[in-house]
Specification:
about 375 residues; alpha+beta; Rossmann fold; OB fold (Dihydrolipoamide Acetyltransferase, E2P); 2 domains; 6-stranded mixed beta sheet; 10 helices; 18 strands
């Protein structure tokens, strides 16, 4: 193959990976294939029970594999113990020892390996300095804020010099403001360290802000893999469009399509008006720069009738709308994305559609 078009080496490759907890039950992870490029930030995204955390634990060696393989730079690590894989895990709860100082928490794994106190404290101290925690090295976890504890947990994971850092919902325990601050720091650390990060989250906003590559999962299967921009603007299936939010899923004569709600147009309906889809306004939410209009399509099954339109504050002020008003929806043909069937297992219930948060989603997508 021409070297100019050869893809970069994969830090992590998952081949037909399956996890089944009991015979006769649907697999938690169902023969998935995934290639994560070296030095990239990959987010596994999906609703609760989609298999993302199970996948991460199988890569880490904390969960046995029913079938399939996990490779790290072409080395099969499927059945190696966690400590021999070249990976490190950063847990949702941080899992710090409450009776140890930040310095001793970071140095703990080196102590278990028999490294001298002087050397392990020196290495732990250097890492704490790197994550701006050197001045708090003597404090115990209970004396640290959530963000400070996360920095200690990161330093503890890095002291083993992993080639891949695995993060299991590392921001979910933090308050919203701190979560935004810490995700920026995670991204900066990943770039500075040059490591491959594999990060599990249920937050669309978090994944779009962090990832080079997003992996959207549902019912143990991978629905779509791509950059945040691609996944958001070109959803591959109805599940992806609904889960990512910010899209209207519409049934037309040509098939099922997705149209971003900020690309969906709304106009007043009057008797005899032709064209577009008739709808009734059911909700109006002022969200600062934008106004989110909730609507119910007329003559459509209830479970498929809910749509939304995102208007600028200026556009809404120019033509105010009211609850109960009958309107017409339309869109430009180039803004419609035809949706494929997706990889969802037949008969599986659909995942709940997340609440629309357009400001955060659009800002993250644009960053």
């Amino acid at each position: 193959m021409d070297a100019a078009i050869t893809p970069p080496p994969a830090a992590v490759e998952i081949v037909a990976l399956t996890k089944r907890y009991a015979a006769g039950t649907p697999p938690a992870v169902d023969q998935i294939d995934l290639r994560i490029a070296s030095g990239s930030y990959c987010c596994l995204l999906g609703p609760s029970g989609c298999g993302k955390s199970t996948t991460l634990r199988m890569v880490a060696g904390h969960e046995s594999v029913t079938s399939g393989d996990v490779l790290l730079d072409n080395r099969n690590i499927t059945h190696l113990p966690a400590a021999a894989r070249g990976t490190a895990m950063m847990f949702q709860s941080f899992a710090l020892f409450p009776h140890l100082s930040a310095l001793d928490n970071v140095a703990f794994s080196l102590k278990m390996k028999g490294v001298s106190k002087v050397e392990r404290h020196q290495r732990a101290g250097n890492l704490l300095e790197r994550v701006a925690m050197g001045h708090l090295a003597d404090r115990k976890p209970g004396e640290l804020s959530g963000g400070q504890q996360q920095r200690v947990a990161l330093a503890r994971a890095l002291i083993t010099e992993p080639r891949v850092l695995l993060l299991d919902e590392p921001l979910s325990a933090l308050d919203p403001f701190l979560r935004i601050q810490m995700r920026a720091e995670l991204r900066r650390w990943q770039k500075e360290l040059g490591l491959t990060f594999v990060h599990v989250t249920h937050s669309q906003e978090e994944a779009m802000a962090l990832a080079d590559t997003m992996v959207v999962m549902n019912h143990g299967l991978i629905e779509q893999v791509g950059s945040p921009h691609t996944v958001y603007n070109h959803p591959a299936s109805e599940f992806v469009a609904r889960f990512m939010g910010g899209h209207n899923v519409l049934d037309t004569a040509e098939g099922t399509i997705a149209v971003r709600n900020d690309h969906t147009k709304i106009s007043s309906a009057s008797p005899g008006t032709a064209g577009g889809l008739p709808a009734e306004i059911t909700d109006i939410e002022y969200q600062g720069t934008y106004v989110l209009i909730g609507l119910r399509l007329t003559g459509v099954a209830p479970e498929r009738s809910g749509v939304s339109v995102l208007l600028s504050e200026k556009a809404f002020a120019a033509e105010p709308l009211s609850l109960g008003a009958h309107v017409q929806l339309s869109w430009s043909p180039e803004d419609a994305r035809r949706l494929g069937p997706g990889a969802t297992r037949p008969g599986a219930p659909p995942a709940p559609t997340p609440r629309q948060e357009p400001l955060a989603a659009l800002a993250a997508m644009a960053s």
